[in-house]
Amino acid sequence: MKYSYILSICFFLSLLKSETSFPGLSIFTSSLDLSLGGSGYLKESLLSSKLNPAIDFPNYFSTSLIRYPASITSENIGISFPFKSGSGSIVIKHLSYGTFQGYDELAQKTSKYSSQDLSLKGSYSKLLNGIPLRVGSSIQFLHSSLNNNELNFLSFSYGAIFIMKKTDLELGISVHELGSRYFISKNVYISSKSVYSMSKKLKHLPLELLLDFSRSNKKRDQELFLGGVFTVNKRFEINFGTSSRKLSQDIKQSLITSIVGATGLGFSYQINTLTMGYGSFVYNNGVIIHGLEIGIPF
Prior knowledge:
Elements: H1 2-14, H2 31-35, E1 60-67, E2 73-83, E3 86-103, E4 109-127, E5 133-146, E6 149-164, E7 169-179, E8 193-201, E9 207-216, E10 222-231, E11 236-243, H3 245-248, H4 255-260, E12 263-271, E13 274-282, E14 288-297
């Protein structure tokens, strides 16, 4: 009851939300993120920023490195563990935008400065007694800095997953990036989004299909994500995905970029108990980003 009471308070505080979004909360932080093209809210990925909080994780440790253009890097580390008859996790994420040369009003060089985001996220999920429904929530603190300017705030996420084992089907709903003005400095708020998800393992193919529909609190911001995980054997899986951004963000730079834009591709390979993952994602302008991830149960 004590934990439920605290969670309820956080929920009602988090209903005070804004009309602006913060990119540091939704960038790619996992190789699976990249390879699924932004889909996979119902796929187990401890470090993912695109995740239903009701996901159940085993005892697991994972770390990842994502390389963006212009020397921007995302470094992440996380651990999951059993907690209070459910599943808990802690994830630390660091996003470095790089080091820059400073200038004064006269265009004279000053000292160099850096820009970065650092976040700490805690999650908890549990299967309800008597019904095939998992519920979960997460809370994330993010510190963002640019030279001498700093920003600190909390965000909350909630989710539920309905599990139909006989048909290998899962349906999920989650609300993300709920922010409270009581915890946000400089009057900056967060734009929330709702995600409706489906995961279906096909009966006659070693393929799991993933479908996610995302809707922000601005009605015009709606996106559809589609991905798949193809199991080659017990050790090797191929991941792929794309989204409606292929059309909505197509800059018509060339026929090739229009075809491969907003598309992810990657794989995971298991060596004994160690799992290694690689993912890549192609933006609509043809820029490719890459990510590596290593995980191990304990």
